[in-house]
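Hi C.,

You asked whether I'd gotten around to modeling the 93-residue construct. I have! Everything is below, sequence then structure, no commentary in between.
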Amino acid sequence: MSEPVLTTQNTRAPDLRDLCAFMGMGLVSWQNVEDAHYLLFAKLIGAPKQEICSVLYFSPPSFESRRVLVDRLAQVGISDDEILRTWSKLTRI
């Protein structure tokens, strides 16, 4: 037997709506993470034009690649030892 179709007449439809709602909230929230991550990158790199920052930041194909890029920039760009220790702890999470 095949799985029942998830429609509004089906008792499983509320589960599908909840799943879609939570996925939507996650995607919207993730955009805030990406925005903050980009702003940190731009601050660390100090490029004079936003277009340069954008091209460099979005060139890596995945967020993981961009995360590593920002981490490496932070390791050389943060001069305050206390902040750098805190950064190092955050990147191990």
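If it helps when you're writing up: The chain has a mean pLDDT of 87.

Thanks,
B.
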